[in-house]
Amino acid sequence: MRHRRWRRHGGKLGASLLAWALALLFVVPFLWMLSSSLKRNIDVFSLPISWLPDPVHWANYADVWIGEKSMVTYYANSLIVTLTGVAGDLTTSAMAGYAFARLKFRGRDKIFLLYLATAIIPAQLLLVPRFMFFQQLGLYDTLWALILPGVFTVYGTFLLRQAFAAAPDALGEAARIDGANEWQVFWRVYLPLVRPMLAALAIISFVSTWNDYETPLVMLTTPSNFTIPLGLTTFADSEGGISAGLAMAAAVSALVPVATAFVLFQRQFVAALAHSGIK
């Protein structure tokens, strides 16, 4: 018995040490980025690596926010595109997911499968058609060219459809017996039940939109419309040289909204993963 107990505790200890080692492996690049953001350019790539900046160069953050290459405009553009896109994605995905899961109409399942099949099309193949489409509409080189494609997502509709389908039928039937219309059944009965899944979708949509580089690269040409991923490229000169300290300070600043969103919705995100795993 004692031997089995020691073996069990040894296995847990080994798994814990492996998990901590993997976590440290993933955290190291972020620690290096944070350390480099407080260094002078000449010290960023010095060997051996100095993890503690000496001296601490706070001027990098000052230059990033109020200097000649200020990223305030890029930050504002990214917030507008991301928050608007996430709000639109949650709205359309919730309504479409509810319709496909709870409303009965002719051809519902076939339409859903056809809509789901569009997910196999690589996003890169849609860049040129979208470019031509938005150019004809006069939306090219505007933030709307980034917002509108993210308002409707196949993944969000599928995720919410599965969440609504897993909810009990009796709740909706009881609400209808009490005189609730279809909108009230959706808004007051079923939508609160899928809040964890909405939080998970919000995090996924926020991160993917915030970090999107390809779409702004194709759709935007005016620097005042750049988002953060494009704005980071402005720290490189025409010869390919880069101001490493400024770039790292900008990258650290760009991580703040993503980390904030995850902290705010962490419990709901974990609950959604646990719920989907149980189902």
Automatic annotation (TrEMBL):
Cite the PROSITE patterns for this sequence.
ABC_TM1 (PS50928)
Name the keywords, alphabetized: Cell membrane, Membrane, Transmembrane, Transmembrane helix, Transport
Q: Which GO terms describe its biological process?
A: transmembrane transport
For this record, the Gene Ontology CC terms, alphabetical, are: plasma membrane
Keyword Transmembrane helix among UniProt keywords = yes
Bilayer topology: Multi-pass membrane protein
Q: Where in the cell is it found?
A: Cell membrane
Membrane-spanning parts: 12-34, 74-100, 112-131, 143-164, 185-210, 242-265
Boundaries of every ABC transmembrane type-1 domain copy = 75-265
Q: Which Gene3D superfamilies match?
A: MetI-like (1.10.3720.10)
State one Pfam family annotation: BPD_transp_1
Stated family = Belongs to the binding-protein-dependent transport system permease family.
Return the protein name. Carbohydrate ABC transporter permease
Per the UniProt entry, what species is this protein from, by scientific name? Answer: Nonomuraea turkmeniaca
The uppermost taxa in this organism's lineage are: Bacteria, Bacillati, Actinomycetota, Actinomycetes, Streptosporangiales
